[in-house]
Amino acid sequence: MSRPYVVVISSEKGGVGKTTLATNLAIYLKAVQEDLPVTLCSFDNHFSVDRMFRIRGSRSRGDIRSLFRGVTPEELVETGEFGVQFIPSHGELALIRDELTGNDSLARGLTGSQLGGILIIDTRPDLDIFTRNALFAADRVIVPIKDAPSMENCKHLYDFFDRQELSRAPLRILPCLIDSRIHFDGPFRDPYQLLKAYAINRGYRCMEGFIAKSPKVESLNTNPEGKIYPILTHGRGTEVHLQMSNIARQVLLGLLAKDRRRLDDIAEALQETQIKRAETFRERSATLRPDCLICGQQLISDQGIKPAGFYAESTSGSVRAFIDESCFNELVFRNFYSQSGPVRADDPMIDLFRESAQHTYFSLRRAPHTKNFYQQQIAFYRFDEEGLEISRKIFELKEFDKGLFNRERSRLYELVTSTLCTDGQRLGSDALVIRKVSSDFPDEILYEEAYRHFNDIIKRIAGQFVENE
Ligand SMILES: Nc1ncnc2c1ncn2[C@@H]1O[C@H](COP(=O)(O)OP(=O)(O)OP(=O)(O)O)[C@@H](O)[C@H]1O
Ligand SMILES: [Mg+2]
Predict the structure, then answer these.
(1) Which residue's C-alpha comes closest to atom 8 of ligand 1?
(2) Do 226 and 333 fall into the same domain?
(3) Pairing with 60, which of 128, 192, 239, 409 sits 20 to 30 Å away (CA)?
């Protein structure tokens, strides 16, 4: 099996026959080519699809919402009447709107599908995020229009394709609900000819033919059983019957004419982006110092990366490294909370610090206004999640921690001199920004979005340093 060919029925105008077209098209496609898998779903909140196709007693495995959550259609389909598969509708699809990250959420999920055949999507009369997701994935978009005003609405649909830099090739106008009894004098003999001329005039391509307005077709959803009857079985005597089989044939010809599906192209583009992202990640990782910036133990080796608590990068980008969690905790407690002696892991302050560190960016740099002094003063800053300053503490940078007789080189001194000193002695204008990372996956921070975000914050922090100088 392959990825499905996606046919979307869409028009911003309500009541133009979208759902009637989508549901009946599925049946006619099966009638023309029995062995073709045909799947149908609707983004609308009425249950026309379910009412038309559900076989009594059958049980559903999910509904249309899951399609936007990366579940493949094959895991959701229910076998329905006439050999058509359908994905059960949901009355409040709109509630998951916030879960959609963009116009390509649906397409991304569908690239994992091996459903094959044709997937027909019926949409709401609205260019909302759900419709846009359907359009983004479409090999063919059929746009039913019934009059000149509904043709005007098509502009938005075409604009969407242009804005997304998508080819307009899938789009086809289909005049629907055409009253074939009306005739005009002059070159346009009837409403169909007139609408077709309007469309061509605007550069819109049309399906061949139209769907006539038929009282018989209209009556197919009004009956004592509350069912919706198909045109194929209950409207054979109408001209719509022939028109529908003509439309189904055109859809099949469109499928045959294309050896690649839109979803194949999307899958390929996704894969390329992933390869590119992996490359950037590798390049970024290669610039990391392998050792903990404070204690010097090796954190990165051929075997991978050891759990680390913090990631540090200088605003100039010259330093990138991880820091062991307890090293940084101890550094902070000793130097900035003035705690003497070793910090115990069960110290309640540690828990508090851990909690607040999750929402903090720390930074170390030369204290403001000290550029011209030989005396080295250092500032320790805390910034909030958005990179805005919360607090700072200024103090003298001493080479040795303890008294004269028990001289131990200060770890803070080593950290600062090994990262921020330009000529080995003096502090330059560089700053070290330190951020808590997930201890199991410390290098997650170097992935595309996470790193981009970190970088934005670094820039904001650096901007405040310049202002404070
Ligand atoms: N060819 C036809 N002849 C006569 N009536 C039709 C025809 N096609 C659809 N109808 C009727 O027109 C009405 C609207 O049709 P339908 O629900 O398919 O439109 P829609 O575009 O899906 O509407 P909505 O925008 O509300 O989803 C229905 O009552 C339907 O029975
Ligand atoms: Mg509808």
Answers:
(1) 17
(2) no
(3) 128
Measured in Å, residue 128 CA sits from the centre of ligand 2 at: 14
Cα–Cα distance, 5 to 115 (Å, whole number): 9
How far does residue 83's CA lie from ligand 1's centre (Å)? 23
Q: Give the number of the ligand closest to the Cα of residue 18.
A: 1
Domain count, the chain: 2
Domain, as residue range, for 293: 287-468
Q: Are residues 264 and 298 in the same domain?
A: no
Q: Say if residue 322 is in the same domain as residue 401.
A: yes
Across 379-417, b (16+ Cβ under 10 Å) vs e yields bbbbbeeebebeeeeeeebeeebeeeeeeeebbbbebbb
Spell out the per-residue pLDDT of the chain, length 469, in tens: 899 999 999 999 999 999 999 999 999 999 999 999 999 999 998 899 999 999 988 888 899 999 999 999 999 999 999 999 999 999 999 999 999 989 999 999 999 999 999 999 999 999 999 999 999 999 999 999 999 888 888 999 999 999 999 999 999 999 999 998 888 888 888 889 899 999 999 999 999 999 999 999 999 988 888 889 999 999 999 999 999 999 999 999 999 999 899 999 999 999 999 999 999 999 999 999 999 999 999 999 988 899 899 999 999 999 999 999 999 998 998 887 766 666 777 778 888 888 899 999 999 999 887 765 556 789 999 999 999 999 999 988 888 876 555 667 888 888 998 898 876 667 888 999 999 999 889 999 999 899 999 999 999 999 999 887 7
| Selection from 3, 8, 1, 2 nearest residue 251 by Cα | 8
Of 19, 143, 150, the residue with max ligand 1 atoms within 8 A of its CB, to mutate for a pocket test, comes to 19
| Domain-located, residue 407 | yes
Residue 282 lies in a domain: no
* Residue identifier of the C-alpha nearest atom 9 of ligand 1: 17
Residue 137 and residue 42 in one domain: yes
Do 233 and 164 fall within a single domain? yes
Residue 131 DSSP class: H
Q: Which of 242, 270, 298 is the last residue of a domain?
A: 270
Locate the ligand 1 atom nearest the alpha carbon of residue 15 and give its number.
23
Q: Of the candidates 175, 183, 232, which has an alpha carbon nearest to the alpha carbon of residue 204?
A: 175
| Ligand 1 centroid distance, CA of 19 (Å) | 7
Domain boundary among 230, 245, 270: 270
Residue 275 domain flag: no
Identify which of 140, 142, 128 has the alpha carbon closest to the alpha carbon of residue 167.
Answer: 140
Same-domain pairing of 48 and 155 = yes
CA separation for the pair 175, 142 (Å, rounded):
10
Specify whether 215 is located in the same domain as 342. no
Q: Is residue 279 part of a domain?
A: no
| Alpha carbon of 419 to ligand 1 centroid (Å) | 70
